[in-house]
Amino acid sequence: MKKEKIYSKKLEVLFEEFKTTGDGLSSTEIERLKEQYGENKLNEGEKQTSLKIFLEQFKDFLVIILIIAAAISFISGNKESTIVILAVISMNAILGTVQQIKAEKSLESLKKMSSPKATVMRDGEKKEIDSSELLPGDIVYIEAGDIIPSDARVIESYSLMVNESSLTGESESVEKVSNRMPEEDLALGDQKNMVFSGSLVTYGRGVILITAIGMKTELGKIASLLDSTEEGMTPLQKSLEVFGKKLSLGIIILCIVVFLMSVWRGMNILDSLMFAVALAVAAIPEALGSIVTIVLAIGTQKMAKEHAIIKKLHSVESLGCVSVICSDKTGTLTQNKMTVKNLFVGLKNVDINNFNCENSLERQILEYSMLCNDAVISNGEEIGDPTEVALIKLGKRLEKSECQLRKEVKRLKELPFDSERKMMSTLHKIYGKYYMITKGAPDVILNKSVKVLLENDEIKDISSHTMEKIKKANGDYAEKGLRVLAFAIKEINSDREILLEDEKDFTLIGLISMIDPPREESKEAVAECIKAGIKPVMITGDYKVTAKAIAKEIGIYKDGDETLNGVEIEAMTDEELIKHVPKISVYARVSPEHKIRIVSAWQKLGKICAMTGDGVNDAPALKKADVGIAMGITGTEVSKDAASMILTDDNFSTIVKSIVTGRNLYANIKNSIRFLLSGNTAGIFAVFYSSLMGLPVIFAPVHLLFINLLTDSLPAIAIGMEPSHSDVLNDKPREATAPLLDKELTGRIAMEGALIAVFTMIAFYLGLSKGDAGLGSTMAFSTLCLARLFHGFNCRGNGSVFKLGFKKNMFSIYAFLLGAILLYAVLLVPTFYSMFAITKPSMVNFIEINILAFIPTLIIQILKAKKYGR
């Protein structure tokens, strides 16, 4: 037997359950409940210390190998190398720590949403207490402007309306009732006799019974979800981790082989270790982590100018392989503002774009909609229910403000709106007569209407044929997801109180339909997503009909697609949901837990999932998604804190621009890695060859560190700044599991590395031919360093340098020049000779170094020109 929900229980049962009465909790009961439930606050999760984050940076296997290399260098007396290696490791750790330290503000923001004070009934007296002191069973009084302090059942409602957009995502205020709702399963937005912590009272007043506090509230459940939701690694992080493990294993095997070979050849153990260390240093791309971080950071700066603020660096790259975007409807794809779409007057449909102010009937329904209305627009600020605000905005076409009209035609009496009647009525004196204007749900107004107003003030009895025509218009609007209000009028004999009994025998004026319209740019942005191979999905707290209509209009919902609501998701197992998600384009009436399940289902299918949203209800899913995207203008602080990216213009199309940037950044990072690894491969080949041939140690560890950290870093960063190309949207998103090093890239790295290694060895032999091992080492180091600087131009992209153009990326030229200056400084300034193990080269040696370093790039450029054209 299912457990009965709070909203379905009788009030007497709840009073008994919570041991309270109309006089509120007693003092003795309060003390017991305090011990049982604690305070009405949200718990805070444990935060990582900066030191712990810093120490975690050293867990990487490549870093451990470098630490071992530093220790061996220190033991062998090579202190300069030790200092350089440790300096590099520390720099990378600090960079990583700075990027990871992100303030966990989600729970703090949630806490700020709690009302600081609450008016409560205790021991038969009204008291004002801190909302943190509230307990289950408390009777609380609320009115317009209050923030609901905790989850509660409505006991009394006096036109009580509550905006629950922070929880449900829907902008319309909800009319609250006190009667029980016997249904078994109701979505959060349909629980009309419940109010929830963090919601805003927009109209009326009420009395509520507190049923849950702190972490047991709906807001608390979201806080728990935020706390327990783990952020996954991005595809690039996963690729780098796999790459790092494979590289580490390869380096260990290679170093052991070289060490054993050196010992076998008769070299002493310490020298053999130093030789193995040289190989390890040559193989490890020490600056890779820093390069990736810097390239991503440059990308974030570019995206900030395009209205996208990136909080988590690796999310930039994740955007490049997003294959699903789960988007909130209200405020993200739509404008979050109700807008009038059609009028139905004189038994005909009038598109609002064709509205004629001179038409008396059309003018009349507009005036009546402003009079039977409580909203105002003052100094640009919209005050009131979004539906009523939409009517006021439409009334601006009369070139008369609502305030002016209300002064001319004063409201004499009123019957406020309530959910049982589904109507609101106001009494006015118009042209010397007293008229009651009524607006409300079409089905209610139509059932109480006996006449209809036509053109030229003609009033006609409503026949069955006429009623069918009006109902068809209403049905057509509803099918399109429009919200419809009916307006009617009735003459009253005098200026007297209007009664509920007066709300009958109406003369129907017409219908007004409205909608929260799609953003102008949404349709184009959705089309761009589909073109890029990305599936857009709408997730909303709205009803299916409305959600489907909007989704169809902007291109998310296509023929053959399916829709699903929260109750249906609830009934599905995770396996069933995973099976269904590829077909579903629209999810309606969903809760925060459902959003996480939807995102998880896509992720289990191997898709990279982005989630957009602006409400508190979106925060857990934003955190769970591979890329959480919050709205900067309309978004709550909680959603912004949970997201990895914030749109400062709340524009869905900005996501498409970000995807272009993300895809290009990934290509640039891949090219940077190609540059670093092909250069390192050249060093490995050179060290391994010299070991096999029994030659002297070709490089000192400090030589390879100089290349990897100083002269290599600059071109790698420059490659990462290669301009974006919008044609990347023509490609499908790459698979999340796609390896960083595929066969083509690995082959290219090996070929280019071997080519550079050949000319490095030629330089080494030229130095050795002079009978000086030190000169041979200096020439090999210089040739490898300069060849790698030239190689930076090869790795900018697939085309030749002439096709790519020099002016498009001037940073590549600056990087080459600065790297060359650093190298020449080491070769020409005697102060550096000892630190960098340099033997002074002659002018002839200089010429030889420059020619040998340039030849590999010349060969690669000729091959590129043949393959890709100039």
Total number of strands: 26
Main sheet characteristics: 9 strands, mixed
For the termini, the CA-CA separation is 76 Å
Strand proportion: 15-25%
Envelope shape? elongated
Give Rg in angstroms. 36 Å
Low-confidence stretches: 102-115
How helix-rich are the residues, as a percent range?
40-55%
Average residue pLDDT? 82
Number of separate helices: 33
Sheet/helix structural class: alpha+beta
Give a verbal description of the structure.
It is built from 33 helices and 26 strands. With 870 residues, it is of the alpha+beta class. A hairpin with a 4-residue loop joins strand 14 (411-418) and strand 15 (423-430). It starts with 10 loop residues before the first helix and ends with a helix. Residues 102-115 have low confidence and may be disordered.
